[in-house]
């Protein structure tokens, strides 16, 4: 029997029944990677000898009667997470020799749960793109169409899962980096509530791995089924043991509902900043129809829904003010000069990006206060609704675009061009207020490319969008393996 597209849950059942060993699963996965990853380039740092040793240890542990949540399950890890003894570069060639001495918190939790780590997956340079390519490790291709991107920055993990290279992966999300690759590759991903999963050890080299509370970025699970997302989130969730973990543990509330017909869902398909492509719009409507057919209360408008234009501006300001914080003085001074040359009437996102790059602390605090008002608006919305369904990006996976001028790139939406980074506004709907969001595949476009949506839920009620994702998977069919 081939195990490559089995879920972690199914593999665990087989391991418990003695139908297969972890060593066999691991050898099969390694053989598949060695045979098929030349065309995909998802696994940039293989750790096959370590994986085989971990698999043997898992089989011995099971023989002793142990039964941990991921015992013997082959998985992958995004390259940006530190793994002791393996390089962490974030795609930057100058750090090719940086080898951390300690595992990231999430890697430690994977290992403690019994997972077998096959290797690390590819990322964009500095994690700062919606694609996954860099000079050091090369380009990760979409398993559905090798001429298209797998997404970024967790694109290597998404491509690995869609190709059957392990049952689970961990990634991170600041600008849709879990959700966009999931949407492009036809898998599931979950962006947790900000702060729910500790991120220590996911840090650009050679910086020390300190227990910092990140403002927007999260670590989260990726899988081929919605139930596997919950399984992996339960392993990942919890504060850093060096700080908040000394005082408290996480106990997530249960999902608000178990039946599809009990959910109250707001469906949003249009954004005032950028149009929604026909393929993505069709995916949103497939989900809306499935919800309605299942008896859920589905609404297309609510006066409680926060203003999307202001949301996009706030997200852009928070995102770009942080990305340039450590730029060299000369580059920062040039940005200041460029921002000073903007017209006072220019309220475009391009202008917001440039102004945010030279924010003062006073500027940032003003944006922070406006974000808190948005968060309160979301609380009011979720008193009336259980989840919001909306796009992840405006299009399915687009062709590789390696133009070094990122701000000069364009994204094609049904034949018209738009600023490349404007597509991030949908990711920012959940990221700016720190809400949980689950990426769910909804089928394929007319070109045969995967299309997904995100299910946004209330803060720290991550189990609510995850449960809704499970119910939609039963209705829509979930992951489909690419034909290649």
Automatic annotation (TrEMBL):
One of its GO terms (cellular component) is endomembrane system. The gene is amiE. This is Amidase. InterPro entries: Amidase_CS (IPR020556), Amidase_dom (IPR023631), AS_sf (IPR036928), FAAH2 (IPR052739). Residues 24-464 form the Amidase domain. Pfam families: Amidase (PF01425).
């Amino acid at each position: 029997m081939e195990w490559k597209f089995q879920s972690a849950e199914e593999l665990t059942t087989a391991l418990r029944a003695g139908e297969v060993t972890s060593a066999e699963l691991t050898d099969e996965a390694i053989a598949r990677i060695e045979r098929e990853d030349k065309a995909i380039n998802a696994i940039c740092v293989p750790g096959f000898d370590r994986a085989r040793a971990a698999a043997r240890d898992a089989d011995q542990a099971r023989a002793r009667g142990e039964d941990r949540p991921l015992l013997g399950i082959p998985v992958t890890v995004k390259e940006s997470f530190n793994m002791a003894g393996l390089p962490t570069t974030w795609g930057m060639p100058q750090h090719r020799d940086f080898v951390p001495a300690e595992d990231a918190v999430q890697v430690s939790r994977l290992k403690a749960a019994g997972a077998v780590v096959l290797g690390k997956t590819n990322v964009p340079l500095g994690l700062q793109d919606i694609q996954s390519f860099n000079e050091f490790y090369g380009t990760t291709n979409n398993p559905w169409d090798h001429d298209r991107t797998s997404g970024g920055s967790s694109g290597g993990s998404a491509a690995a899962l869609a190709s059957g290279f392990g049952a689970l992966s961990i990634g991170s999300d600041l600008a849709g980096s879990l959700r966009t690759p999931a949407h492009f590759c036809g898998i599931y991903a979950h962006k947790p509530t900000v702060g729910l999963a500790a991120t220590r050890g996911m840090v650009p080299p050679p910086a020390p791995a300190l227990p910092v509370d990140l403002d927007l970025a999260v670590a989260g699970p990726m899988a081929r089924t919605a139930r596997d997302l919950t399984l992996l989130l339960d392993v990942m969730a919890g504060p850093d043991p060096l700080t908040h973990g000394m005082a408290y543990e996480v106990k997530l509330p249960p999902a608000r509902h178990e039946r599809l017909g009990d959910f109250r869902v707001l469906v949003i398909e249009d954004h005032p900043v950028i149009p929604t492509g026909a393929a993505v719009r069709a995916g949103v409507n497939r989900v809306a129809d499935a919800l309605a057919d299942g008896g859920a209360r589905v609404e297309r408008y609510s006066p409680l829904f926060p203003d999307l234009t202001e949301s996009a501006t706030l997200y852009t300001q928070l995102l770009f003010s942080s990305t340039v914080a450590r730029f060299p003085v000369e580059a920062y001074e040039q940005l200041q000069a460029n921002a000073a040359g903007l017209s006072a009437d220019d309220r475009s996102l391009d202008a917001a990006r440039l102004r945010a790059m030279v924010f003062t602390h006073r500027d940032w605090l003003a944006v922070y206060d406006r974000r808190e008002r948005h968060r309160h608006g979301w609380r009011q919305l979720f008193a009336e609704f259980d989840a919001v369904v909306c796009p992840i990006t405006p299009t399915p996976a687009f062709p590789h675009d390696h133009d070094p001028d990122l701000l000069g790139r364009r994204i094609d939406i049904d034949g018209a061009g738009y600023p490349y980074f404007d597509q991030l506004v949908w990711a920012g709907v959940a990221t700016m207020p720190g809400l949980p969001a689950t990426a769910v595949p909804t089928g394929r476009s007319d070109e045969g490319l995967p299309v997904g949506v995100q299910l946004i839920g209330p803060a720290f009620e991550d189990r609510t969008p995850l449960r809704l994702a499970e119910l939609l998977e039963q209705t829509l069919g979930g992951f489909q393996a690419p034909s290649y």
